[in-house]
Inverse folding.
């Protein structure tokens, strides 16, 4: 299911191949990143914390795929 980054919830599993910043990582095809935190950083940026990765800043409206 595709969702806007601002609608992510803790525990969502994000398909890294849909992440504009992590899609080129060699493990992106084989891993789903678990959302550990979401916060609005600025009026145009949503910060997402992934377990075992770190914070990633996305423009509001970025679409990511999550596992149902």
């Amino acid at each position: 299911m595709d969702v806007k980054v601002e609608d992510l919830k803790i525990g969502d599993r994000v398909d890294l191949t849909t992440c504009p910043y992590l899609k080129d990582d060699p493990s992106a095809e084989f891993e789903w990143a678990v959302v550990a935190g979401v916060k609005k950083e600025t009026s145009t940026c949503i910060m997402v914390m992934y377990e075992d990765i770190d914070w990633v800043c996305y423009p509001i409206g970025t679409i990511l795929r999550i596992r149902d």
